[in-house]
Design brief:
Length: 218
């Protein structure tokens, strides 16, 4: 049976690196990306499923494979309406996980965030924590959850606050010791590499990686 990966969030910073990684390596014979609009990429292994995320059930039968990678996410500035914000950060990833579980995927990989907690006061961290919790209720043999801190990398769009945070973290990183290491910034390439490499393993269970542990996986 061919090894097939499905990726949601391929147009984002980490998702873009992950897609390039998967396509360049021989392990997966086919890669399906679930996108709102077609990506400007062509590859013999690549299949693009262009959808309306509000109508996921209509395409559920087309989402098949062995490993599912979810890198969906947004920012409060880009999606200021809380209902829409929650859709992208929680509802869509959970719906995709439910579809993947029903369709027999063995693995689900979810990119969360440092500080994710379903009871957090911060909406972003709360939604990430709720998503983690809901995914873990599903019947996957293998679940990998990644909690990166500030992501470093060159985005297509300019995000001033992230740029400032990235510069600040380069100064702060050496000062973060012990339990504070989880707050160290990390490159999106390292996260993507870790996600790909962990997908090659067959150990069953749920695995959660704080930011500084992700670096050790890459």
């Amino acid at each position: 049976m061919a090894n097939k990966a499905v990726l949601a969030g391929a147009s984002g910073l980490t998702g873009e690196y992950l897609l390039k990684n998967i396509l360049s390596q021989p392990h997966y014979d086919e890669v399906m990306v679930i996108v709102r609009k077609q990506l400007p990429i062509e590859h013999k292994k690549l299949v693009q499923l262009i959808i309306d995320f509000d109508k996921l059930d209509e395409v559920a039968q087309s989402i098949n494979g062995n490993v599912f990678f979810c890198c969906l996410g947004t920012t409060k500035a880009k999606t200021p309406v809380i209902k829409e914000y929650r859709k992208i950060e929680h509802d869509y990833p959970v719906q995709l996980a439910q579809i993947a579980s029903r369709n027999g995927f063995n693995q689900f990989h979810y990119m969360s965030s440092v500080g994710a907690n379903k009871n957090a006061g911060n909406a972003y961290l709360k939604f990430k924590g709720q998503t983690e919790n809901d995914i873990q209720k599903l019947a996957f043999k293998i679940i990998h959850i990644y909690r990166p801190s500030v992501l470093l990398g060159k985005r297509k769009e300019f995000r001033l606050l992230e740029k400032i945070a990235g510069l600040a973290m380069k100064l702060i990183n050496p000062l973060l010791k012990g339990n504070l290491q989880r707050y160290k910034s990390i490159s999106a390439i390292a996260v993507a590499d870790a996600m790909y490499k962990q997908s090659l393993k067959t150990d069953e269970g749920t695995f959660i990686y704080p930011s500084h542990h992700i670096k050790q996986l890459a």
